[in-house]
Amino acid sequence: MSKISDFGKKLLFWSYGRSTWQYDVLCVLILAFIFLTPPSWFENSERAHWATHQNASNVAPQRLFIDSSDTVDSPGTSGLERRVQELTGRTNARVKAVRPVMNNEGRIIAYEVDIE
Fold first, then answer.
1. Rounded to whole angstroms, how far apart are CA atoms 22 and 10?
2. What CA–CA distances, in Å, run from 15 to 8, 22, 24, 33, 58?
3. Which tens digit of pLDDT belongs to each residue from 68-114?
4. Where would you tag: which of 17, 64, 70, 108 has the fewest CB atoms within 10 A of its CB?
5. What does the alpha-carbon distance between residue 50 and residue 59 come to, in Å, rounded to a whole number?
6. Spatial contact of 93 and 115, defined as CB atoms under 8 Å apart
7. What strands, in cross-sheet order, belong to the sheet with 95-102?
8. Alpha-carbon span 23 to 14, nearest angstrom
9. How far is 67 from 71, CA to CA, in rounded Å?
């Protein structure tokens, strides 16, 4: 039993030398996790959350950030309002205020939208 706890302790505290086979196996496991993990695990969870909860009108966010590439037409209120309704699943969502979010070069990269 002490060999198992010894192994667990060494594994937890990474106390294997760089030239040992245990170290190589641990490195391969880490690389396998990095390259074999599905990209969906790292997607924007807030967007996925609101897309799956279509009827969550009483818990919808009061402020959204919409990527400027998500708007197909001009950043007018009607285009952003349609996008807000798509993201929240609320057909009664209305845009109260729109503020552009700019990068260091002064280019609009997103819109901060207050909704009601």
1. 10
2. 10, 10, 13, 21, 51
3. 766 545 556 677 788 888 888 888 888 888 888 888 888 888 888 88
4. 17
5. 10
6. yes
7. 63-67, 108-115, 95-102
8. 8
9. 7
